[in-house]
Each structure stands twice: as structure tokens, then as C-alpha cells.
What does this fold into?
Amino acid sequence: MNTTTAAQTANVTVATIRDWARRGVVAATKTAGRWIIDTTSLARRIEIGARRHARKAKKAILTAENIKAIGGNEWIRGTYHRIYLNDWEQYAGIEITRYNTGNVSSASLGGRGIANGRVGGLLGAVSKVYFDVTDGKLYVQHHGADAYDIRYLGGERDQVNLVARIFAGVRAAVASL
It folds into this structure.
């Protein structure tokens, strides 16, 4: 299979697949300047990665105390009892540096650089992230679809599920307590 298909199968970037091929992490041959990835070898690599993640995974129990411990702000009004996460972008893996004017000077998503203008769209896509104490669930209020089209610096384009990234980031933060 080609590198694009292999990357989609393994849920990694094409650059990671090329790196694995160069280092011999997966069996691959280079034909006419393009890598051809061995399907069985890739499946084995995915299995090894899944086992590593399964061992490291710690069950994250979302409670009011845990959400407050990672920086949540409690809000009670009538029958509503919520804990808001106002800095949700850190849980989504969004990092931003700003000029003194407040404008974005650089931005990245999951460690990969993105265009400064695109980060505004990501930040504007989510209006609230909160834990509802009464039903014990985490909520993300967002505008539009769950997946957002992102072009990384260097031209590579990807679909990013911002809601899933927030959920995973909050669970990881709670699990690390």
C-alpha cells in the first residue's frame, strides 16, 4: 500500500510512515521514488502501538473534584451546577503565542504548526466546555461539524475532530492526577 493509505490505516501522518519506512520500523520498499508499505508489517506495528497505549492508559473518572483540580471553575445557579473549563484549548492541544497587541504570532495543534488565521477559526468553533455535576457528564458546545479542515505549515491538510481532542485531553489530564 502507498504511504497515504498506510497513514490513514495507522492514524498517523504520512511523514511518520515515511520515517518508519526509512528506519525499518515497517517493512517497505522504495520503487520509483515512492514507498510501498507491507500491509502485514504495518498491521503488526499498529498492534504494538495499541498494546503500549493500553498498558499506559489509566481509567479517568470524571468527578467535580477532578475537574476543579485540573483548573475548572464552579458555577451554581438555581438547578444548574456546572464546572467550566475556560482554558479548553490546552486540552485540545492548541498552543498559541501572541504579540503584545493580542494578535497571534504563532500557533500549533498537537505540536504541528498551523496558520495563524486558522487558529482563530478553531477557537471560535467552541463556545463552552463544562462538566455538569448533576448528570456527571462533560459537554462541549460547538458550532457546526465535529471535524474541522486544517492545513498545517508545509501544506499538509488534515481533518481535526476538535470535540474528540477536547474530551481526550480532559480525560488525560484527570488520569494524570
